């Protein structure tokens, strides 16, 4: 459905008179055959379409009016109906609704008399165009639905698609009912696939409908994409109103998406198209007036003197009509100029708004980046300052724990060590999260690691919390997995410690399992599935959406409830390792956290990594002089006691 341009009503009667009186020399003779006349009619139809493209609707009426008489002469009902349809639509473009209705009614009566469904459908589509002009949108939609029903019976693919798009466009552009429009857009696409011969004709219409639907439903990204497709399809046709509409929608979509810089560039293109359109309209109108004046000034050879007075009278009438049409055209041009001036003023206001938004965005971006830098520096500094005294606290608590004279206070000292280690882990989590957000932790090591030893070390490091909650920790590693793999041991340990620590915290008198399965193995790479299962308190579906966020935590109280950083760190580390964490859980039945990870295979060694024993390390320091450098007296004392204990042992 193409909406018709607005024109002044008083031009209509003039055009009709002009169509009846103005004559054009025939290129056929009274002796011409039906075949020759048919060819002449089709030639006139092409000329009519060319005049419509120029906006010369009166000239188009003249060609079709001549075709009407010739079709009636040779008794061709189809050509007669086509000529009436073209005349009706030309009058409709000139706002002469009454005259358009007259020709369409004749086609409807002829179709009913002949019981011709195709002709009836074509006439109903023409009648629907009148309804849309009269703003009778509901009648327009119902009439197009009748066309769809008839077209299905005759398998008229062209009118099935046309009528469906008409209904969709009315719902979208006039009634703003996007959901109803979507039904007919989808139907039109189905018909287009069923009748592929029509595909090229409706490509731009489908893009337009998809774009308008997406924009009205708030999917501005999809709207932008489809408006872009319309622009590409109409590239080279810079005078097209559809191209101007598409660029306008493209600009609005960019503005809604906050792409102010891109919207500004689109605005400049749209502004250029408007200027070119105005220029082409002015040039074409001037050319049309000159052509008409030239035609009217051509002297015809007159063989019979008795016809001279009639010819002079006819030419005078034509010139009068031409003068009236020229005045009307001038008024239309002035109206168009006023429209473009107002539109340009609106676009200028939008441009200023876009520039302001862009400046605000850049200012906010700079402030955000500065705050991020300050945050990173602060967290790095405070973490370092906290870790220094914690080193002393952990070292001294360990010395006190081993002192025989304080054996009666081992339980308290054990709690002190746990609290200090917990605080150190918290600081490490904050520092790790800070590094991830600042982009400084993306470098991964690819060194040999023994997966079994890594998991067992995790078991030892979590011994206190495991015993505290009276839990059992079981480890199951599939035998097919190579003993020595290549990967980042530290980051994998961080992930498993966080997951296993959480399982131990929220499980009492239960069982926690660390399971590693082989999914697939290639020559230099394996894909493993890591699972941490528990039979603890479980997690609700609502909480499962929150626990992976920063400071996300269970709402249930727990003796070991933490800050909520652990799972967030796990999520971000796995994302950097091209993986992701998943959870399956039910309240009261425990939870399973799992992820898949690609690791390399160490082709140079199939044996486990050999570890230097603790005794071998300690004996290396016997008889040696050791220099301890530390600006903290407590830390000096702790380090000194560590080496002293090694030598004494």
Features:
649 residues, 7-stranded mixed β-sheet, 67% helix, TPR-like_helical_dom_sf, His_kinase_dom, histidine kinase
Give the SSE string: HHHHHHHHHHHHHHHEHHEEHEEHHEEHH
Average residue pLDDT = 77
> Per DSSP, what share of the residues sits in E-state strands of 2 or more residues?
5-15%
Please give the number of β-strands: 7
Structural class assignment: alpha+beta
Instruction: Based on Cα principal axes, name the global outline.
Output: elongated
What does the main sheet amount to? 7 strands, mixed
Number of helices: 22
Distance between the termini: 95 Å
- Helical residues, percent: 55-70%
Q: Using only CA atoms, what is the Rg?
A: 42 Å
* Assembly level: single chain
Low-confidence stretches: 1-26, 287-303, 555-560, 606-610
Pfam family, one: HATPase_c
EC number: 2.7.13.3
Coiled coil: 290-317
Enzyme class: transferase
